[in-house]
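Same chain as my last thread, 460 residues:
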Amino acid sequence: MRHGKVLAGIVASLLVIGASSIARGQGRSLADRAYRADVLRQIADIVESRYVLAEKAGAFADAFRALARTGAYDDQTDPARFAEKVTADLIGITSDKHLNFRVVVPSDVGEEAPGSLHHAVRYARLRLKENVGFTRLDWLEPGIGYLDLRRFYSFDQARDMALAAMTFLRNARAIIIDVRRNGGGSGDYLSSFFLPYPTQLSGSFSRQSGVLTESWTSRDIGHAPRLDVPLFILIGPNTFSAAESFAYDMQSRKRATLVGEPTKGGAHSVDVFPVGDGFEFYISTERSVSPVTGGNWEGTGVVPDIRAPAEAALEAALREARKAAETFGREQDAGLRKAVAGMQGLADRAAGLYRQANYRRAAAALDSLITEAGRAGLLSEFFMNVFAYSYQAPEDQRMLFAILEKSAALYPRSPTAWATLAAAYDSRGKRELALKSYRKVLKLDPGQRGAAKRLRELSR
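reply #2:
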């Protein structure tokens, strides 16, 4: 399932097949020849009316009907084995690995199957068990981050985990994303973290509506995209569906290097239809269309840029990532050295102007320094505190206060920022300013006993 269409498919299928077909099968087994024939007929009819490739659907359905007439299923009385054989035969006829005819089984909480809550509960439980697809997040070597993602869930479900992962990888100088064991899911959201907004991704063409639904990177991802960090994607024969879409789009946009073996080759997305008594049929109803190539990877799979056995793909990617990270790091460091040199000039200028009591021009220089620190990725509350520590001399008192006041203004909800400012005022005899800052600390965090104690002492 690539685009998360299962729930919509259930609703649509109930309208097409009708609840009566489920009711007719209640209490009947595959040993009943008429019932088994009805199930096989429904499967063929769904293929003919719904399969994504309309020009081939009739022939596929006829081939399945012919197979059923040979008696291929006459000895199939066990529902699970019957479903497995039907699935294998359908894939053999169509070469479409998305097709799946299966027995409806409840999740581990034992909800009624089939029932209106069945799919909602099953996917909710799967999401928890799979940790929203995030299996491993690691810092393999200095500067090289790694993410092993086993399934794509919709971004509304994966948002918190995705943001945590991207925050973890924020300082990486090369990133490896492993989708070798990713079987797909509800759509690709990862591209939005590595491509500019808006970038068009592979869309989906529906046979039923005849409409191509476009797909684009998202703006509201809660994180600045990493547009230039070297990116490597590990793929293999078990990479399927949405994971293939991610790899294909990133490769066609020349944004990532793919390492491993060709993928499984599933560029369709599915709807699910209830069949008979307790079966469901996942069938391809839409196909992917790339805005770059005009095609997709159905049947052929996504071909890697660097071929390596799937089990050795990480080692192969690491060799390339080390070189890419070194080059990327050199460029980053050269830019940072230049930025720091400029910031130091602003710091010296601000300190000198404060010593001359030229407060307006000094504050402007300090503001410029802080702006540059933000652009360079250095700015934080900790950075401001350490920076202020350099101005302990009596003649630099005003510079010290100015830095810590700026810190409190930048981080107004931080008790620590206000406590640091209060301590600086307190230790230099600025009683009224210290009292004001200690009160701010306690307003933000009433449990700050040290601040409360000092406030009482200064208030005597």
